[in-house]
# Entry
Amino acid sequence: MNILLVYPKFPDTFWSFTYALPFVRKRAAFPPLGLLTVAALLPDEFSRRLVDVNVECLTDDDLSWADLAFIGGMAVQRESAKQIIARCKAGGLKVVGGGPLFTAEPDEFADVDHLVLDEAELTLPCFLEDLKNGHPKRIYRASGFCDMHCTPTPSWGLISMKKYASMNVQFSRGCPFNCEFCNVTVLFGHRPRLKTPQQVIAELDSIYNAGWRSSIFFVDDNFIGNRPYLKEELLPALIEWRKDKKGCVFFTEASINLADDPDLLEMMVKAGFDAVFIGIESPDDACLTECKKNQNKNRDLLQNVKIIQRAGLQVMGGFIVGFDSDTQSIFQRQIDFIQNSGIVTAMVGMLQAPPGTRLFDRLKRENRVNSAFSGDNVDGTTNIIPRMGLDSLLAGYRSIMKEIYSPGNFYRRVRNFMKEFKTPEITAPINFQQVLAFFRSGIRLGLWGKERFHYWHLLLWTLIRRPRLMPLAITLAIYGHHYRRICEIYIFE
Ligand code: B12
Ligand code: SF4
# Structure
């Protein structure tokens, strides 16, 4: 049987890096790890082909080759997924849908033949068994969570790595916390499930042996969800692995309590991590209480960020406005926090209630969910009726984005960050595309861009104060260009 795995297109979003990727001649930021894992779960007698519409076209030849199309993705890819489904159906091809998009909104996809939902490790074998017997059902669901020891190494051979800016590895699923707006615990559980160090090393080896030397994203919900295991098992294995390797700098997602553990920070840096995304959400304790983000409460969040930066990890941060406890002063407080923290990549969103979260259930009861979840929390929309009124929230939200991504403030923040940041010992080797990216950014940002003065000022400042951080300074300048374009298109009036 020929299985065609299709990954729908991401719209231009904060995380798509659409306006940054051309500088390094890449087509997409990240590969479709879910589909690559599903491909690896298929029995050997199946032939597989993977088309990631973000990096290549889905051709008629692909469709006529296939006996069955497998489509997977996130809510933000909904429109493209619907178009692909329609194309498959028009060609008489049966469609199987799985992954977060279909799992969260199965009722939206009446024309999908088989919905194989939740974790494929649990539901795919049942579907394949029924398929073999000639009676596949319409919907497959799992009641629990899979044992990650059964998750195979993704089928990396199905993609062309050079089209992507980063590769992905997953060590754990689930999170010990329970923030009201987040559905991670519902989807993946409260107790983090972990792969063994041997599994993770095998995945890293498969990526490294394919010639990859650039960054690798550990796509965990919360990488430090089980700190003892991390410190005793995984990080020592990663430190050992890296001894005879070049490049492959890691980044991940974690909770703020990372700042409380200097040993953990040191080990992560030694293992090759240089950046971490953290949900900061709000500098206001009342908001943190409201959304049950207890791990962020009663602490000096600003100092915590600096501790992590000084250890050698860049902090990327998530921020939310529109909590019931928010007053008009929150907008300026968020701006001040973001500027002072030196969090260059600040993902600020208006509070949204994804289906399946406790927030969704609460606001539904209060008749305050008024539209569908867009799937992108940085698109200047929300599906809830905020207590402060939508117009006030939108105006305040736009003012934050305008301030923090204005060239002056953005570049000031980059310098704030670089003043604190400990120069990493492990870096990716500079390749030819990065050298070209420097020249391209010199022309695009340094000659044509509104930010040209700030751009050259940053480069000069870096040359004098932190010369070893020059590649990072250029990368951040390019990211700034992307974030500003996204704001101009979707958020600014
Ligand atoms: C990495 C990641 C990203 C990366 C995406 C990289 C990429 N191209 O994959 C980036 C940073 C870009 C990203 C962005 C966002 N993300 Co994100 N992200 C994740 C994360 C942490 C890991 C995804 C992953 O690779 N998992 C590992 C693979 C193996 O798991 P998987 O994809 O789920 O696949 C499994 C099953 O779903 C299933 N499966 C998957 N596909 C298919 C297909 C078929 C046919 C079948 C049968 C089964 C199947 O089998 C797989 C094995 O079990 C998940 C959380 C998570 N733990 O999964 C959130 C998650 C996918 N993101 C989410 C969201 C909401 C977002 C954002 C809006 C911002 C945010 N708050 O995080 C943006 C939206 C995108 C944008 N604005 O551009 C939600 C999706 C909710 C939804 N209904 O779509 C998740 C689930 C997190 C959450 N709980 O809120 N994200
Ligand atoms: S810490 Fe992050 S992953 Fe964990 S529940 Fe809160 S928002 Fe979700």
